[in-house]
Amino acid sequence: xxxxxxxxxxxxxxxxxxxxxxxxxxxxxxxxxxxxxxxxxxxxxxxxxxxxxxxxxxxxxxxxxxxxxxxxxxxxxxxxxxxxxxxxxxxxxxxxxxxxxxxxxxxxxxxxxxxxxxxxxxxxxxxxxxxxxxxxxxxxxxxxxxxxxxxxxxxxxxxxxxxxxxxxxxxxxxxxxxxxxxxxxxxxxxxxxxxxxxxxxxxxxxxxxxxxxxxxxxxxxxxxxxxxxxxxxxxxxxxxxxxxxxxxxxxxxxxxxxxxxxxxxxxxxxxxxxxxxxxxxxxxxxxxxxxxxxxxxxxxxxxxxxxxxxxxxxxxxxxxxxxxxxxxxxxxxxxxxxxxxxxxxxxxxxxxxxxxxxxxxxxxxxxxxxxxxxxxxxxxxxxxxxxxxxxxxxxxxxxxxxxxxxxxxxxxxxxxxxxxxxxxxxxxxxxxxxxxxxxxxxxxxxxxxxxxxxxxxxxxxxxxxxxxxxxxxxxxxxxxxxxxxxxxxxxxxxxxxxxxxxxxxxxxxxxxxxxxxxxxxxxxxxxxxxxxxxxxxxxxxxxx
Length: 544
Known about the structure:
Helix content: 55-70%
Oligomer: single chain
Strand order of the largest sheet: 1-2
């Protein structure tokens, strides 16, 4: 399918030939105009002597062209309806099956003991859904080769793949649908889903609705526009092409005006006729057909995105922190408040500190707004110390506030930057690595941290805490099995969160770093590793 822009004046489409039907129409209209010119110049007088002036022919010809125009417009409307219905059904199928896949992932048990079973089900379902969508498109598409991609099928047995290839095009989609239904039923019998059967049936409804829409698409592909209608319309167009030069020679006295009129009418009729033929069957490889290959690719991308652990893992949220409600999606620091208030009541001292901080930030924002409008900042309502501090703040980009540990923080995952940096070194997030490598990896990420020498001290402290916890829980042997001087990125984040919570409860006074400095450093590193740092290029953690 051609994606195009209209340009400033809406005429950019005139310069594009790909997918255009005007050249095909000109093949008919240009010879018709030339024929009109030759007849008008050389044979008009002889025709007048033979058949007369053709009085009354204009009335008959106007009625004929009206009927022809009506039939062509009706044909074009029907073709557009079939085209738009195909687009609608294709996207409905994609949405329904994506929703079914999302539901089945959400219904899976969260029991850690069954994590391996859930992973097996997820990977199996991922491949079957991709295969189902591929075979469904094959039912309605006319493609020269099998260019539709599917997610890796190496896990399926060769006999299964051979069986699918031996089936007809329609039987393949129905077979894969049956496999998916059997997979869900068998895992439901194993109690893999943590929902009631009526809720689970929602996924079956979405799957079956997609198959019904596939049948609707097959109706458009298998049932063409009625043949008698199409045949007679073609006959009328050819007849109009043959008779138009004769009628124009009799009715129009100037040859150039007769040729122009015939050319314009013939081009218009044939263009509408070819547009209807072009969009009547939107599945194929023509320029104006639906992008079937891209549709399958995007469906696979959606499946892979939903199957990633970051997608279906529920993010942490502490309602006590969400004291400021907004009606926009702004990611400014005023909407991402620190989770330091997670264990306090609404009247606690920390809540009072947050209110003061919000008031302070609002004053700073007011001064910045006055500066942007060219007005002199009004700081008369600020204490002298705050006025001096606010003056230093003006002109600096405000960083995002820390998002620290919550009661559900053990489910917090690494952010995309940390995962990408680890992958470039061939490191998995849960893989234990030497502290020196871990320190270099974190320092590589923390390019905006003002004092990078603090990072090794914090990592060493997190490692000491890990060893202490392992010894206390009788896991010393397991800890030494992976190496006494090693720790994974996931463990580092978890222990950083523990250290942050320890600071909130009043512990950690005798640690290597000062309390205030350590508080800010931990906040920054946690935001960096968990992907919650919204302005990574403007944050500077100033030491106290």
